Amino acid sequence: MPNHRELLKQSDPDIYDAMLGEEARQKKGIELIPSENYTYPEVLACLGSVFTNKYSEGYPGRRYYGGQEFTDIIETIARDRAKALFRAEHANVQPLSGSPMNQAVYMAFLAPGDTVLGMDLSHGGHLTHGAPVSHMGKIYNFIRYKTNPQDEGRIDFDALRKTALEAKPKMVLCGYSSYPRDYDYARFKEIADEVGALTMADVSHIGGLIAGGAMRNPCDAGFDFVTTTTHKSMRGPRGGMILCRKKFAKDIDKSVFPGLQGGPHMNQVAGVAVTLGKARQPDYRHYCQQVLTNAKTLADALMKEGAELITGGTENHMMVIDVVSSFGINGRVAEETLDAVSITTNKQIIPDDPNPPLRPSGLRLGTPAATTRGMKENEMRRLAGWIVKVLKNQDDQAIIDSVRGEVEGMCTQFPVPGID
Ligand code: DSN
What we know:
By secondary structure, the chain is of the alpha/beta class. The chain folds into 2 domains: 46-278, Aspartate Aminotransferase, domain 2; 284-411, Aspartate Aminotransferase, domain 1 (Alpha-Beta Complex), CATH 3.90.1150.10. Helices cover 46% and strands 14% of the residues. It is built from 17 helices and 16 strands. The chain has helices at residues 4-11, 13-28, 41-47, 69-86, 98-109, 135-139, 157-167, 185-195, 207-211, 249-260, 266-279, 282-304, 323-327, 331-339, 368-372, 377-392, 397-411; strands at residues 30-31, 58-59, 62-63, 90-92, 115-119, 141-145, 147-148, 154-155, 171-174, 198-202, 225-229, 240-244, 318-322, 343-344, 346-348, 362-366. Strand 7 and strand 8 (154-155) form a beta hairpin. Helix 3 (41-47) runs antiparallel to helix 11 and helix 4 (69-86) runs parallel beside helix 11 (266-279). The chain is globular, with a radius of gyration of 22 Å. 50% of the residues are buried. D-serine binds at residues 35, 98, 126, 177.
């Protein structure tokens, strides 16, 4: 078996050195970006396998190229595992990532100009949920709903229902990238049914937590379409999946290929199959529970130390600190300050943020990656203490240096899967 890394080292040292640098960065610090994770070594093996050589347009049993006996095996396994885990009637595992996954659903069932009800970007929605800067926002008529600050940042369902009755959307969309609450799918479905709209849940952030039985499942609530990326809480390769009811299966498959994409990335499909196999194991269910416990512990400890969270807590894997009200700094300064102590986070707009996206008022944190490394409640409390200490003292180099030493010291005890 050739040593792939040794070959790379000899033939392209610039790329090899950058790879070593990234490995060292991932090891020495901690990843608290809620959409990131450390994938399984088995997934890394799939991604670096000869499945990347293969064109497989079409679906198992009906492809446009020969030589598909092994690609058919992996794609069939991935689809079957996805259906079983999510109790879905149909699964398409070919979307290259989150954005084409959502586009494929829209393009299958919406005409340009059709109305969709989706969450406002600053309240936790996603770019592909109709942000004006995205192509989706230009093609379809997205109408936005919001959260209610008087109700600890929960979705304002009374306002949502009123908007739905007025706008008569073709589709009601739920699913978010910065909403630290569980989702009330039954309430969405009730409102969508009242106005005759299709239902779609983009559960990219929490797809893994649903698969692991730790959060509610929109398939159980009878949603028409459920989309999820595979690399966040699910801990797999970068990719996307569409789950739907059987009556929509043909249109979804046609929309992904040949509608939107060409050949699927079969090395990625192999990794998705492996990831879904792992998600069936009891270990993964414990992991998902620990992600939630860690998030609650981190959120409670941050608040105890004086940080203001935009929803006053969390019901999932993430939280957003209002760093302007808590520490008098913007999200970019907070992110850079934490980078300097090897804690990786991301700046985040908060509901109706008066500040621009590159200098927003918030900072978003989450626990899937830290939990993968085996960190538990004690480490969450230590992280909260360090985060608040450096955000209160971002100009004090001695404090920055000492906290960086403590963070990196703790991280050495928690290896990153797949890195020696
Ligand atoms: N970029 C992802 C996130 O961080 O939430 C969503 O696409």
